[in-house]
Amino acid sequence: MAISQIISLFLLHLLLPLASTSLSQSSHQLICEVGTGNGGSIGGTSPLPASLSKLLIKGGTVVNAHRQERADVYVEDGIIVAVKPNIKVGDEVTVLDATGRYVMPGGIDPHTHLDAEFMGTVAVDDFFSGQAAALAGGTTMHIDFVHPVNGSLMSGFEAYEKKASKSCMDYGFHMVIRHWDESVSKEMEIMVKEKGINSFKFFMAYKGTFMVDDAVLLRGMKRCKSLGALAMVHAENGDAVFEGQKRMIERGITGPEGHALSRPPMLEAEATGRAIRLASFVNTPLYVVHVMSIDAMEEIAKARKTGQKVIGEPVVSGLVLDDSKLWDPDFITAAKYVMSPPIRESGHNKALQAALSTGVLQLVGTDHCTFNSSQKAFGIDDFRKIPNGVNGIEERMHLVWDTMVESGQISVTDFVRITSTECARIFNIYPRKGAILVGSDADIIIFNPNSSFEINPRSHHSRTNTNVYEGRKGKGKVEVTISRGRIVWKDDELKVAPGSGKYIPMPPFGFLFDGIEKIDAKLVSSFKAPVPRFKSDV
């Protein structure tokens, strides 16, 4: 055989796995486009109904965060118009039998990154595929993070409006702040008063890209307070993480395990505590995203015990996984678990579950930011180049139920609270979202606690070819998902169309801002200053 032929075969051997991955992703994308471009479906062949103007859910147990009751739910034109027993309807109404099932508000995921540009690549799930996956898992709304474009918040918002034009369920936006000047301060006001954004995120990590220093964080918190917007932080000490990464590389630790070793829990705790103290100094509420460690959780617990308004958000990966897979000898297996802050060693997950069950932590997100195996391979020789992110938008509701309710750690009403209602309350869209009440949007799931699920990347609806929860089985399954009155998931069939989702504006000054002025006044009155002094000749 000629040398050129040997080289060609060698290159083909190397490229085949990537080609296979690319083909798999393209095929899935094709299914999405063919199945929705003309009102079809993903994973099925039935057409998407234009609308369901009248719908009755009969015989189920309706669960809200405050109570559960046997009742029927009647929906007209996407709005809940009655919740009571034995509702009678005519033949023109579509009837769903929920006997033996729970009827609950659709989930709200407070933390996602769809179509996100990050670490030199773009997340594979966009606003269609990611939302389709969410609906299949019982989540009917999410809140995504808008990044500025060329320093402009407005340009970033407009860019994300375009990204979200293909959405198939309701969504809202947080806004990321990456630098500070007067234009940013002015645009924050426009975002709040005109664009429906009531939360701003500050990264304390990712030095050289997203990270802001304490001066920016302080100015941002003050501006958030004046606008009635919630300050959010990704809490890791970015300078120390940068140093930790250098240490690992110098020691020849270049694989995915170096990611976890370079950013230990103490660095998450330090940044969490620092953000909490700065928020206390400003006297503004604080939301800590993806709490991944006992150390960070304890900082939140300590602050909340003093009465400080701090929200702690664990994500499903931190609740149910540990870091053991980061040491897997197969790079692709290990790399799919890389996210920041890292998934922690066993024990942290159980402690976070306990904190969630006792109210130290308040709601569950996912940080859904998916990359396929070929993208993760960018860092095969240097863990610093592995795109950070895991899946979870489709799996969250099932995993939280199985982990928290089936184990007896929380009640059914608590499940609704941590997966839906609390998010709606924090971001000031309750009871439009997060409730099954008269006047609420008809975002509803029918949940069978006696059914079971199994997670498999070959059957999930995300475009990624991996899944960090692969092989997990459990009890409890979403059998029906209803989005604004439309049945979008039933009989394991997804019926969605791009452009059918709506942007949900979120007004400022939610309940977390109640009493802020009184605390300010009490602080000022405690100063006993300024002290009147007489000037004397020297």
TrEMBL record:
Q: Name one GO biological process term.
A: pyrimidine nucleobase catabolic process
The protein's PTM annotation reads: Carbamylation allows a single lysine to coordinate two divalent metal cations.
Annotated ranges, domain Amidohydrolase-related: 102-488
User: What Enzyme Commission number does this protein have?
Assistant: 3.5.2.2
Query: PANTHER family recorded for this chain?
Result: COLLAPSIN RESPONSE MEDIATOR PROTEIN, HYDRANTOINASE/DIHYDROPYRIMIDINASE FAMILY MEMBER
Family recorded in the similarity comment: Belongs to the metallo-dependent hydrolases superfamily. Hydantoinase/dihydropyrimidinase family.
Q: Which protein, by its recorded name, is this?
A: dihydropyrimidinase
Organism expressing this protein natively: Gossypium darwinii (Darwin's cotton)
